Model the fold of this input.
Amino acid sequence: MVRLVTRAERVAQFILVKGTEGLRFAPARPRVVTHARRHIHNHPHRRQHQLSIGENPSVHLAFKPSLRLQAQASTNTASFGNTSPRPTNSAQAPPITAQSPLPNSAPIKKPPPSATPTTSKQDLANGFGDKPIVLDEGTRQVDWARSFHGLSTEAFSKEAAEILCGPLVTDDIEVKPDGMIYLPEIKYRRILNKAFGPGGWGLAPRSETIVTPKKVTREYALVAHGRLVSVARGEQDYFSPEGIPTATEGCKSNAMMRCCKDLGVASELWDPRFVRGFLKSHAREVFVEHQATKKRSKIWLRKDDSVKYPLKETKFNA
Done:
């Protein structure tokens, strides 16, 4: 006797699958028969065809939409026992994404950082941290970072005063392009060495080095023959972090030149009348042109000096 496949058996061959558009029914087996349904009563191999229909119920559901709707209604009633309408998209569970944590899974732990110590270079832009050492003043030592020991106790010798307050040699004075005159820092050191002797004077720092985004500054004290002479703060510009060490040396020299004003060294450079007279008799103002950019400007230089490359002397109307 040939057994016909019932509708409930055909519906049981389907499973409920959750897709991007919601819940849907799909065949339990991946293979789907796509050929057209044959007429069962006139087919010579009726039993074989009935078995094939039982194994592949998608034949009926693919070509008869009414059977698909009936199977969906029967499965909802049998499997879930609830005939209420399917909830809308807002009531559905949120989709699982790559960022969503998996259920019943432990959190992923990041690997611990490497235990290998890393050496970091000192950032000079944050300062040197070279605050002067504070000493306890006694009978044999003086804390020059705080003390004013020997200030104005007595005058220096007549010979030292003549060297310190002597007139400048005009050949030692230099002229900047903007018309300012100055004495190179090495000339100040030569005058101090001649007046006090090498080792008879020195600069003692009175503060730590302060580094700003464009400038280095520090306070120094000029000490001569064991006595405090003057205190001044030096400063020096720099253009890159690599130039900070050089700027600290320029800051020290700038503080020394400012301290020397109290000793009368090169005091003419701060006299406006002397400055105007020196520019009139020993300097000249010329027009120059940059050979690369062709930009023209007006600069000052000594009469016995010539214009250096990349500048070239020219005329204003040329």
